[in-house]
Structures are given as structure tokens and as C-alpha cells.
Protein 1
Amino acid sequence: MVIHVMESKEIASDLAANKIAQQLERKKNTVLGLATGSTPQLLYRNLIAKYQTNQISFQDVIAINLDEYVGLDGSHPQSYRYFMDTELFNHVDIKKENTHVPNGMAEDLDEECKRFNELIKSYDYPDIQVLGVGQNGHIGFNEPNDRMFVHTHVEPLTENTIKVNGRFFEDKNEMPRTAISLGMKNILCAKHIILLAFGKEKADAVAMLEDDRFSTACPVSLLKLHRNVDVIVDREAASKLQHA
Ligand code: F6R
């Protein structure tokens, strides 16, 4: 794991975008594992700019997202399908059929989890997995717990996540209580992981990356078990690291 402390989230997002651009150059049919939320927004803007200036193409790229709220249709502005379409997919040359987000409206959620799990496996997992991190250390929607899920599953969201993410919902009661999420094995099977974290709210979670231990009480710390992780943070997110 390499922790890169950058002066600002803009510079951090540039570094992440450049790493992804290099990957797309190496392999046109790259499998990209993608996250939603506020953290990757600048990264996606940066990738759109690279596409618009003919530096990269998504024509053969496969995109597989980490998670989706249960009960939100893709047309709901807070759904992760809507986020991906409006923040990235609609602005680049990716084929819509190559974009995969779990279906939070599936009648049979267990079947949907199985389908999604088979899907990511059939692509031999992402070449690059982009991750953000929750204030409580969650990655995807793998929340802190004694026992965590290995594969794609329905995760009950913690009170903390419901509060933090609920701020984006006009009607707080609309905030879902569960989400479909890739499990820890799905995430750890990615060939390369880029974790982004910005702002002082993420400092505690980032501080858990520094020593040699991991704990399911802080899921992001399980990334220490992976052999190829770039953690790219701004100064605020790095503020509780001892050796930054
Ligand atoms: C989103 C996801 C979540 C977010 C995390 C941070 O697809 O998997 O783990 O990365 O909740 O969210 P932001 O970036 O909004 O702080």
C-alpha cells in the first residue's frame, strides 16, 4: 500500500485520473470498478476532460459499480445508476450495455446479488477499482461489523451512513436502509485499487491505514491485505497520519 498525500483534492484527483488514463492506454478493454459519492466527482470530471481532448476513449471499457441502494429506481436522482449516468457515462463514449450497476429494484434481491457476483467474476474482476471511504471506514457498503460479507450481498446500512448519506435526500425518509454491495472478496480481487479520501471527516479512517493491523471494525483497513493499493488523499484526510 502506498499512501500519496497531495496538496489538494484537485491534485489528488489529477493523479488518479492519470493512473486510469495510463491503464486505458495499456488495455482498451479495461474493466473499471467504479464508486459513487462526492469523492470521485472531480476524478470523473477529469476523465471526461481527457476524453473530450481525445486523450482517452471508453469505447471498449467495461464499468462495474460497487453498489446501489435497495428500492431506488435508476431514474431517482439519488440512485447510483443516475449518478453514474450523469457524472460520467453520458459524457463519454462508453457503451451503455457495458455499464453495470446493481439493480436495487430487483424483485428477487438474492438473485440479483448472485447475478452481479457472477458478472464481476466473468470479467475476472476490475483492472482498477476506484474506492471512496465512509467516515466510519466502510468501503462499498461493507459496514463495520464483527462478521463481514465475502460476496455481493444486501447490506443493512448503519445509523452513521444513514445520517451522512441522508443529507442528499430532500425527504430524509426516502433514504434507503439497505443497499446491494460487492463483498470484500469482490473488492480485494481487483488487480489494482485506487482509494481516494478527502476532507477532515475522513482523517480517522485514513489513520487506520498506517500501522500493520487490520480490523473488521474499520473495513478500509482490510485493503492492507491487497498487494497493489494506491491511497490518494488530501492534506486534511492525512491530518491524523503520524508519518505523513
Ligand atoms: C459509493 C461507495 C461508498 C462511498 C463512501 C464515501 O459507491 O461505495 O463507500 O465511497 O460512502 O462517500 P463520499 O465520497 O460521498 O464521502
Protein 2
Amino acid sequence: MSEVSTARFEVTVAESEAEHAALGAEIFARAIDAAVRARGSAKVALSGGSTPGPVYRRLAQMALPLDRIDWFWVDERAGDPSSPRSNFRAARADLGLDRADVAARVHRMEAEDPDLAAAAARYEALLRRTFGVASAIAFDVMTLGIGDDGHTASLFPGTGATAIDDRLVAAIGAQPAKGLEARITLTAPVLCEARTVLVLARGAAKQRPIASAWSEGPEEDVPARVLLRVRGQVVWLVDRDAYPTG
Ligand code: 6PG
């Protein structure tokens, strides 16, 4: 493991998938613990994609204060929650959240609704109720990934999604050319309020988008640049292949 850090921006390079999972789970659990100590509960937001699985499975083996954690999603793919494409389904299985005693604290996005904008508005209302209307919607810990095209959450390049600043949750249209279904996503202002953002990336295909995300430029071209505006701590947990060299 090696580390580069400033006060709010930290890069940790894991030497193996196992180390990536272990470090990710440790950072996640520490953020949960700090939130529970400071505020009595932890509000977390989970990304999908393939990278977080090993981190979530490792986290599930730790002694977590499950009666104090509220689980939300960063984004969801249009479709049924039982679909293999569902971010809810994957994270719930990986984290072992299919237990009756935590069900009331597991808050999925209802992306099976053909009216995704209505489902996004319902999720926004849920966030306002949970956090309180007069408080910032500041997640204690949020996992994010980065796509080969520089997207994060479901904020895709060339779609205007990073500029949405009048909603907490938005519906994003399908992109047939990329083979992507429509999505529901937390918007950039919510990402930027998070206290700890854990960005998980592995593999050489992430090197270029990460280098771009770390350099100033239009967010519309590289949406992961919104992470340069996060008010809390951003931890990039990458493997050697994903770490930008040049
Ligand atoms: C999703 C996401 C998305 C993901 C990145 C990285 O639903 O697809 O939440 O933003 O984090 O695409 O995905 P990988 O981990 O699969 O590379």
C-alpha cells in the first residue's frame, strides 16, 4: 500500500484485489464508526458497478452497528430490483442486507417505475425527510466509481447531468449508443456535500479517466471532476494498474 494525501484528497494504492477490498472495508467502517459516535447514526450511499463487490463483502464480515446505519443508493439502473443489472440487488446481497431486522433501514431507488422522474422525486422526498429539510443532505460515507468515459454515479459526459443543481435526485435518459439503460442518480450537489467519498477503481482502463478527473477542466467532459468540489474527504482507493503514471 502507498499513499499520497492532502487534507481533503487522499490516494491509496493497493497492491492486490484482496488488499483493495480490505482497505476499502476498513475506510468504510471507520467512517461509519465516526458518524455513529458524532451523530448517533450513519447515512451511507452505495454505488453499483463491479468494483465495490469485494469491498462490500469484506465489510459484511465486520462487526457493524447495523441498527444505526441507513443504506441509500447513489444510482440505480432502470428495471426491476430482481434484475441482475440492479445495483440494489448486488449491494444488498454483498452486504447481507436481506435480513428482516435491517429492512427498514435499506432505502432503494424504485427504478422499476416507468416514470423514473417520479421515482427520483420520491427518493428526493425520502432524503429530505431522513436528513431533515433544514439540514444539508450530507452523507457520512458514499462509495463512487469511475467509468472508462469519466462518468461517476450516473452523471455521464455530454449529457448535461453534472450541471443539474435544482434537484437532489435526477432521472437520466437511456443512452442506446452506449448500450446503457436509463438511470436514477444523486446529483452533483449531493455528491459534493458528502463527508467521506470513497472512490473505488481497479484496472488499467481507469488510468486515463482518473488522470483526467484529477485535472481541472469541464465537468461536462469528465463528470468525475465534480469530485474536485467535494467539501469532505475524498479517498481514491485504486490498484497499481489504475494509478495514473504519466
Ligand atoms: C453504475 C455505477 C457507476 C459505476 C462506474 C464504475 O451503476 O454503473 O454506479 O457509476 O460506479 O461505472 O463501474 P465499475 O466498478 O464496474 O468499473
